[in-house]
Amino acid sequence: MPWLACGDRVVASLEVARARSERRRGLLGRDELTGALLIERCRAVHTIGMSFDIDVAFLDARGCVIDVVTMPPGRIGRPRLAARSVIEAQAGAFERWGIAAGDTLDVRLDT
């Protein structure tokens, strides 16, 4: 199972949406998320049809967080042109995990 790491800390279990269909579906149809979801090749997200608020971290090509937002259901987010991927988590998770703009996140395959 992949893990999301911030510096030397493993902060959450991680699902990775690689296929086009997985990226399109994202968190739709879920009532909650324990851990985080990485959506590769993504610059913008929406929460239309979702049932809970999410935190979104936009990452550049090096995994550096360029922006963090919390989005309620039913919103269309504005694209971050420098973003290459996003991390989504249940609202409040990034604060608990200590993730903010400027942090570098990476995927670990083991702890």
Name a few traits of the molecule.
single chain, 111 residues, mainly beta, Jelly Rolls, seven-stranded mixed sheet
Task: Give a verbal description of the structure.
With 111 residues, this protein is mainly β. It has a seven-stranded mixed β-sheet with strand order 5-4-6-3-2-1-7. The longest helix has 6 residues. It is globular and about 35 Å long.
Brief characterization of the structure:
The protein has 111 residues and is mainly beta. Helices cover 10% and strands 37% of the residues.
Q: What is the first-to-last residue Cα distance?
A: 9 Å
Q: Tell me the radius of gyration.
A: 13 Å
* Biggest sheet, spatial arrangement of strands: 5-4-6-3-2-1-7
Number of strands: 7
Tell me the fraction of residues in β-strands, as a range.
35-45%
CATH C-level category: Mainly Beta
CATH superfamily: Protein of unknown function DUF192
Topology overview:
Layout: E1 3-6, E2 9-17, H1 20-25, E3 36-40, E4 54-59, E5 65-71, E6 85-90, H2 93-97, E7 105-108
Parallel strand pairs: 2-3
Antiparallel strand pairs: 1-2, 1-7, 3-6, 4-5, 4-6
